[in-house]
Amino acid sequence: MKKILLVEDDKSIVENLKEFLINEGYYVDTVAGQSAAIDMLEENKYDLLLVDISLSDGNGFAVCKAAKSKNDLPVIFLTASGDEYSVVTGLDMGADDYINKPFRPRELSSRIRSVLRRYGKTQSVVEVGGLCVDIIRGNVSKNGVEIVLSALEYRLLLVFLNNKGTVLSRSRLLDEIWDIAGEYVNDNTLTVYIKRLRDKIEDDPQFPTIIKTVRGLGYRVD
């Protein structure tokens, strides 16, 4: 389980974001200020730092510097600042990404996975049921034979693989893929894409063993 340190002094953001990240499968520690954050970095080992640039106690730049000097910890800035200076300063200090508040949790989750992949802290190749997905290269194969997927099919597959063992509702899936490739995806369209994906990756699409239906709840990849 990947460990994240969240440094944010807005209690409502902390409460909601921590719950979301835990549901995404992360372990999350939270602190409100610069001094406490630096102490946590000294006492614990984390896989990623999420830090607000503006803190009531100090600032996120100092926390970023501490994280980078210790073990080059991946850093994503959370910022309400609209000024280019804050963003550029953070990136110049070694931050790996930033996201402006308010943000969509799903977008942040995607950026977290992207940053962790760049640091080699998530698998670049995922295998399940004879299916092999190279996330870095975007290649998909089944029993050694390459499979060609559309952008939406590939995105849908990644959503399943990034949430292995978790039952995903149809509304959750729609939230993840609705704007990929500029297409509007409604509930009926989702059904079509799940069928197309199963036709390509399952040995027997009528009896799927990779993308399983959980009756009344949604779908799951084990």
Topology, pairings included?
Layout: E1 3-7, H1 11-23, E2 27-31, H2 34-43, E3 48-52, H3 60-71, E4 75-79, H4 84-92, E5 97-100, H5 105-118, E6 125-128, E7 131-134, E8 139-142, E9 145-146, H6 151-161, H7 170-177, H8 187-201, E10 212-214, E11 218-220
Parallel strand pairs: 1-2, 1-3, 3-4, 4-5
Antiparallel strand pairs: 6-7, 7-8, 8-9, 10-11
Helix pairs in contact: 2-3, 6-8
Give a structural overview.
The chain has 222 residues and is α/β, with parallel strands linked by helices. It has two domains: 3-118, Rossmann fold; 125-220, Arc Repressor Mutant, subunit A. Helix content is 41%, strand content 20%. The protein is built from eight helices and eleven strands. Helix 2 packs parallel to helix 3 (60-71) and helix 6 crosses helix 8 (187-201). The mean pLDDT is 86.
Spans of 5+ residues with little confidence (pLDDT < 50)?
none
Q: Identify the CATH architecture of the largest domain.
A: 3-Layer(aba) Sandwich
Q: What number of domains?
A: 2
Order of secondary-structure elements = EHEHEHEHEHEEEEHHHEE
Largest sheet, strands/sense/barrel: 5 strands, parallel
Rg is: 19 Å
The CATH homologous superfamily of the largest domain:
Response regulator
Q: What structural class do the secondary elements suggest?
A: alpha/beta
Tally the helices: what do you get?
8
Distance between the termini: 16 Å
What is the β-strand count? 11
The top level CATH class name of the largest domain = Alpha Beta
Query: Which topology of the largest domain does CATH recognise?
Result: Rossmann fold
Which term fits the overall shape?
elongated
Query: Into which percentage range does the β-strand content fall?
Result: 15-25%
